[in-house]
Amino acid sequence: MLTLTFLGTGSAFARRNFQSNALIEAWADSPASQAVPDDIMLLDFGSTGPRALFQLIQKQEFAYLQGQGRNHGRADYGRIKKLFVTHLHADHVGGVEEFAVLNRYASSESREASRAFQPALIAAQDVMERIWTNTLCGGLGAMNGRAATIDDYFDVQPVSRVDDACGSFEVGRGYTASVFATDHVRIKEKYDWPSYGLIFGDDRTGETVLFSGDTRFDPQEMRPRFENATTIFHDVLLESQEGALHASIEQLQTLPQDIRGKMTLYHYGDNWDDPSFDFVSREFAGFAEPQRRYTLFA
Ligand SMILES: [Zn+2]
Ligand SMILES: [Zn+2]
What we know:
- By secondary structure, the chain is α/β, with parallel strands linked by helices.
- It has a single domain (2-297), classed as 4-Layer Sandwich (Metallo-beta-lactamase, Chain A).
- It is built from nine helices and 16 strands.
- Strands 8-5-4-3-2-1-16 form a seven-stranded mixed sheet.
- The longest helix is centred in the middle third of the chain and has 16 residues, at 125-140.
- The chain is globular.
- It starts with a strand and ends with a strand.
- Bound molecules: zinc ion (2 copies).
- Residues 87, 89, 184, 214 line the site of one zinc ion.
C-alpha cells in the first residue's frame, strides 16, 4: 500500500493551514497491520513543515515518528529516509536546513550508528544543481572547525533523465515516482525555471496517481496524465490573477467532469471555506484535507 498525508494543504502564504508538503508512506501490508511503514519520504519540506510535522505526530497513527530524549517530542527525522524536493520556493524547501541539522546531530539513526545519518535527498538534476548554492549553503555551509558541503548532510540522489523524460525513482517496493517538469515560474518561457511534479505508479497494476507540484494551468501537457490517473492532486489558486504561477479555480473548472471528479485541490488560500467555494465539493473531488492519510494504492 502507498499512502499520502498532507502536512498542510495551504498556499505559500496561508496562515490557517500549513504549506502544502506531504508525507509518503509505503507499506508491505497496511497501516492496520503495521505500526511503522517500510519506506517513508517527505515530499517537500517548507518553512512551516517542522511545525506541521510536530502537529501530525501528535496523532496516534503518526506517533511512530516521535523522537525520544533530546528531541523533546520533536519528530525523529532519522526515521524519514528520503526527501524529494519539487522546486526551490521557501514553502517547499524552507524546512530543509532544520531537517539536515537535526538528522546530523539529533536523530536516533545518527546516535545508533555513531556517525551522522544522511537521508537521501532526491530531486531533478537542475534542482539539485541549485539547492546547495541557492538555498542551503548559507546556513549549512560551515560547521565547527571546517567548511561543509551538501555531502556532509545528505546522500545526494539526482534523478537522472532518460531520453526526453525527467526520470524516476523507487518508493518502497513496487512503486515508482516519475518526475515531470511543471510550468511554474517563467523567466522568459515555459519550463525555463526548474520545478517538478510527480506521477506515482503501482508497478503491479499500472495505476497512476498524479501530484501536480506547483504549476500553472497546462492542459496541453497535463491532459494525457489526467486521463491516465486514477487520482489527481492539483494545486489551485482561488482568485484569478494575471500571470499567476498556479492554476486558477476557473481554469480547472474548464476540464471535463470525469477529470474534475477525481481531482482533489490543494495549495489553497485561507478563504477556501467561504460559502462561495461550496461548488468545489460538487464539481471536484473536493479540497484536500490536511493531516488525513490518503490511500494512493491499496
Ligand atoms: Zn508552493
Ligand atoms: Zn512554487
